Amino acid sequence: MKKILFAAASALLIFSCTKEPDLTVYEGSYTVDSKTVITVNSHNVSLSDYENAGITITLSDGDRCEVTLTNFINGQPEVKVPATISAPDTKAAAGAVFSGSVSSGDRTVNVEGVTADGTIASININEEITAEGIVGRWTLGSASITFSHPDLEIIDLNSIIPGLTLPMSTVVEMVNAMIAQSIADDPSLAETYIEFTSDGYISGAEIQNDPELQHLLPYYVNSGEGIFGVCLRKSMLEQLFAQLNGITELKEMLEFFGLGFLTENPVSTTIPLSYSINGTGLSLTADQSLADPYLPMFAEAAATINSLIADLEYEDVIEFLYMNGLETLITPDNLPAVKDLVISLISALTDGQAKYSVTVGLNPYAA
């Protein structure tokens, strides 16, 4: 009997020593801190680009859980990833290992990481763009603009060329014809390409051999809304603005026009372009909706520029006119009218009433 009791007690002891750890202690939210190691598509990234990022672990069944990624994935504030979790038998919410994958939007996301005490010790994310017709190398095939404004349906050039008035639509057609001719006359464009990589970066012929630039400019795709988003990371903007601030003349000019704030306190920004696929070609378009939120910031600069133009005398521009062969077209007599025309154009671009766009057509690159 004693042997039976001893065997039962031993089995109970062994069972208690080998029981599964209590994973509920790892359920909750974890944030990024200065010690977090973040790897995206096999390269380390700057923590400043993920200051507001975090994860939430929600247990479901056994070692299965859901990991919610917050502010980690470009274009998607939250991505929920089915995952598994494992951890040592400890009561502290630190040291849990999680991994999982999901197809989210127009990409697949694979994630693995380790928690610390309330923070993320490390996290590795790999993405693959799955949207059709995006990934690959492209060359410039075309470019065009549109422009309209309720107060600029007709451009009156009578003061410069007597009897000449042009509908704005005609001016736009003339500009587009000039752009098309410039592209047709430049055979080197067919030899230069831009690449949208499968892991979500914008690359190109000039930066293929520069590791520091290959992962500098991320992009994402939302095919449901036709959006091609270009991501300007805070770390990249910090480097760019530091270089710009080092150019004394440029810094002084920005401050003169009241634009010095543009190079201060950079934050990560996304430029949402619209895209469409026509046959084998890809078109990207930017319109006034990108600029509209920033127009109030440029009001002071526009007013300053208009004031400078209004104060110009013929002696101030004569050298410029002769350098560009415009001395017979713009004279002391018609300069006031020319200045009024330029001011009206600047006002039209900054008063929020204009409708405009720029579209770039890309063709598949033929190596």
H/E topology pattern: HEEEEEEEEEEEEHEEHEEHHEEHHHHE
Based on CA inertia axes, which overall geometry fits? elongated
Taken as a percent bin, the fraction of beta residues is 25-35%
- Mean pLDDT, to the nearest integer, reads 87
Strand order of the largest sheet: 1-4-5-6-7-8-9-2-3
Radius of gyration using CA atoms only: 30 Å
Low-confidence stretches: 11-18
Q: How many helices?
A: 9
Total number of beta strands: 19
Q: Fraction of residues in helices? A: 25-40%
Gap from first CA to last CA: 85 Å
Instruction: Please summarize the sheet with the most strands.
Output: 9 strands, mixed
Described by its quaternary structure, the protein is single chain
What is the structural class?
Answer: alpha+beta
Provide a short characterization of the protein structure.
The protein is an alpha+beta fold and 367 residues long. It contains nine helices and 19 strands.
Structure characterization notes:
- The protein is α+β, with helices and mostly antiparallel strands and 367 residues long.
- 27% of the residues lie in helices and 35% in strands.
- It has 9 helices and 19 strands.
- It has helices at 2-17, 168-184, 211-214, 234-245, 248-256, 288-291, 299-310, 314-323, 335-350; strands spanning 28-31, 37-40, 43-44, 54-61, 64-73, 76-86, 97-104, 107-115, 120-129, 136-148, 154-156, 165-167, 194-196, 202-204, 219-222, 227-232, 269-278, 281-287, 355-364.
- Strands 1-4-5-6-7-8-9-2-3 form a 9-stranded mixed β-sheet, with no helix packed on it. The protein has an 8-stranded antiparallel β-sheet with strand order 14-13-10-19-18-17-16-15.
- Helix 7 runs antiparallel to helix 9.
- The longest helix has 17 residues, at 168-184.
- The radius of gyration is 30 Å and the shape is elongated.
- It starts with a helix and ends with a strand.
- The model is unreliable at 11-18 (pLDDT under 50).
